[in-house]
Design brief:
Elements (H helix, E strand, L loop, with lengths): L4 E4 L13 E8 L4 E9 L6 E9 L12 E5 L3 E6 L9 E8 L3
Antiparallel strand pairs: 1-2, 2-6, 3-4, 3-7, 5-6
Pfam families: V-set
InterPro entries: Ig-like_dom, Ig-like_dom_sf, Ig-like_fold, Ig_V-set, TCR_variable_region
GO cellular component, one term: T cell receptor complex
């Protein structure tokens, strides 16, 4: 059985103008039907900060986002983080993470 995997899609550098919306995405691969996808961000020299989670496949819950500006969508193989009303303080490194439940 292959290991669970998740990673950013190509073209991971996102450039935007303040006030716009930006979308970042990751693709994942797992045989599990119970999937929870997390988003984090990390500022230079800082700890990763939780942004939100959203479930996929057999699960459908969404965790409370750290800010109302954060939204997420999921599919069978990918997750997106949408940030509305982007500000300069959103300049950071963003991470996606995969958690699977019982097979």
């Amino acid at each position: 059985m292959a290991a669970d995997q998740i990673g950013p899609n190509k073209g991971t550098n996102v450039i935007s103008t303040e006030g716009e919306s930006v979308t970042m995405s990751c693709t994942y691969d797992t045989s599990s039907r119970t999937v929870r996808l997390y988003w984090f961000r990390q500022y230079r020299d800082g700890e990763p900060q939780y942004l939100m989670w959203k479930e996929a496949r057999a699960w459908s819950d969404t965790g409370t986002p750290a800010e109302p500006r954060f939204q997420s969508t999921t599919s069978e193989t990918s997750t997106e983080l949408i940030i509305t009303g982007v500000t300069l303080s959103d300049s950071a490194l963003y991470y996606c993470a995969l958690r699977v439940g019982a097979q």
